[in-house]
């Protein structure tokens, strides 16, 4: 059973955020109450994966956490001989993900791997999903990761990317942050929780603006990039090779 996220409910000396066993325990509640439209994003990523999956190919879920996107993709794949590779570098996440997936039957095999995206080989891919994961990769390494994904994708393959984004200037950024904090308040997080969480993630999650994301994907060679979702500073896009 997973519980309610109260990790930052009491005043504490805030350390850098990690995806440890305490976070795993409350992760579904945390992400649901923190990311506007999370359920819609996950189900739409599954639909897009169903649309772009090619027979005899791999689909990747990078930074899979508990496997929400993996499950959503798997429900929608109707092509032959597809395989999902789900990767996360948090051992407690991977263990819980493996347990969770056992509860669902499907003909599409899933390989859940403990590993760092920076070191992962990507090949024969029709779909690569990164649902709020690139933001945790140091900014200096993001080009290389996306370049590797591009090289590993088959022609017509897609990257499904969701990110928390930075506003294009300080005024726009503050506007989006305020709206997001209101959303969190509405979902029961206190001022203390909001502010301590902000401190915890400020060193480990650096956001890029939407224009930075789009320019980088274009530079790498993606033929088309389309935003299909944005609410406040949360954005999902599809990039087609
Ligand atoms: C979902 N996609 O529920 N290599 C592998 N995994 C990593 C790395 C890395 N270098 N860095 C971070 N992670 C999920 C939600 S959460 C987003 C993704 C969030 C993993 C990390 O351990 C965590 O499980 C995930 O990326 C990010 O749709 O919590 O905001």
UniProtKB/TrEMBL annotation:
Which GO biological process annotations does it have? methylation; tRNA wobble uridine modification
UniProt keyword Transferase, yes or no: yes
The record places domain Methyltransferase at 61-157
Name the domain of life this protein comes from.
Bacteria
| Keyword Nucleotide-binding carried by entry | no
By its UniProt entry, which InterPro entries does this protein fall under?
A: CmoA, Methyltransf_25, SAM-dependent_MTases_sf
* Physiological role: Catalyzes the conversion of S-adenosyl-L-methionine (SAM) to carboxy-S-adenosyl-L-methionine (Cx-SAM).
Q: What is this protein called?
A: Carboxy-S-adenosyl-L-methionine synthase
Organism expressing this protein natively: Pseudoalteromonas rubra
Lineage from the top down?
A: Bacteria, Pseudomonadati, Pseudomonadota, Gammaproteobacteria, Alteromonadales
Give the gene that encodes this protein: cmoA
């Amino acid at each position: 059973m997973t519980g309610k996220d109260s990790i930052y409910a009491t005043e504490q000396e805030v350390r850098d955020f990690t995806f440890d066993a305490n976070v795993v325990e409350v992760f579904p509640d945390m992400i649901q109450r923190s990311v506007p439209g999370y359920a819609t994003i996950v189900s739409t990523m599954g639909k897009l994966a169903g649309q772009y999956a090619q027979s005899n190919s791999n689909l990747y879920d990078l930074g899979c956490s508990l496997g929400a996107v993996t499950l959503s993709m798997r429900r929608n794949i109707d092509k032959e001989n597809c395989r999902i590779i789900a990767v996360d570098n948090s051992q407690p996440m991977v263990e819980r993900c493996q347990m969770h997936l056992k509860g669902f039957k499907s003909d599409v095999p899933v390989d859940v791997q403990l590993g760092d995206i920076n070191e992962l080989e990507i090949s024969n891919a029709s779909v690569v999903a990164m649902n709020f994961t690139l933001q945790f990769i140091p900014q200096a390494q993001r080009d290389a990761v996306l370049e590797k994904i591009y090289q590993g994708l088959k022609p017509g393959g897609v990257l499904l990317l969701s990110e928390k984004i930075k506003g294009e200037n300080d005024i726009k950024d503050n506007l989006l942050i305020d709206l997001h904090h209101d959303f969190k308040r509405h979902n029961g997080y206190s001022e203390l929780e909001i502010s301590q969480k902000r401190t915890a993630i400020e060193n480990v999650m650096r956001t890029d603006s939407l224009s930075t994301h789009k320019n980088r994907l274009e530079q790498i060679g993606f033929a088309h990039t389309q935003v299909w979702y944005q609410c406040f500073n949360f954005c999902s896009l599809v990039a087609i090779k």
